[in-house]
Amino acid sequence: MRPIRTICAVVCLGFAAKYPAAALELTLTDTYTLNAPASLDYDPTFCGLWIANEGPEAILVTLDGLELRRVRSDLTRIKAISLDGSNLIVGDGMGYLQRLSKEGNALAPPFAIEGGWADTEGVVVAADGTLITVADDPEYMSWLSPDGKILRRDNTRAMTPPLTEAQGIALDPRTGHLLIVDDYEGSNSLYEYDAEGNFLASLSLYEYGLDPEGIAIRPGSGQVFIAFQSSGTVVAFDYVPTRPDQSNPLPPGGDCMMF
Predict the structure, then answer these.
(1) What range defines the domain where residue 194 resides?
(2) What CATH number did the domain enclosing 144 receive?
(3) 222 vs 217: CA distance, rounded Å
């Protein structure tokens, strides 16, 4: 992964009705070349990105492009990846998840998401251990227990506005907000939801690329990374979430613990 350009462009949304005091904001900063990235998560321990591209391995790469390690699972492929405490959780896009150490050791056998088949495109882990997943076949946002039991499931096509091809998902620990990208078969947009799954804002991503697949948040620096599969790039942004009161500063986020 190597930086190929630095641009600055600010895009602000109109204020969301529920939270009129602040709006979702992105400032484009860098673009990195990668091999068809499909799912991302940021790892503050290594100041790098875990990247899945639907192959048998996931890789950990620094923001300067240095590959640190590769991991494999017992799944046939790794389509979704997220930190799970000090470990990883990966999904195959066919209804199975597995927990791994960051060294690539299986911590337990793969387990099935309740309900069978689920084209899981993205997964995050909430502070209480709840798994939040997005799938585009069928189109669901699901809240799952740590062992895959359904706690809540929303049809994303029935949301207002509808989310038809949800791919990557990221959770901002400072606010509890969820950021979800909708790919080119949908709206090619970024969506923001509060911790309960209520819609806050959306932003078209056509200006930056086609077919957004993965997203990761670096809360310590207020950055977000979005993977565009059609161009094989990851685009970095400075990021400000929707907030009810801008006068209250965001809590700090942990970052770069290896230094």
Answers:
(1) 3-16+24-240
(2) 2.120.10.30
(3) 8
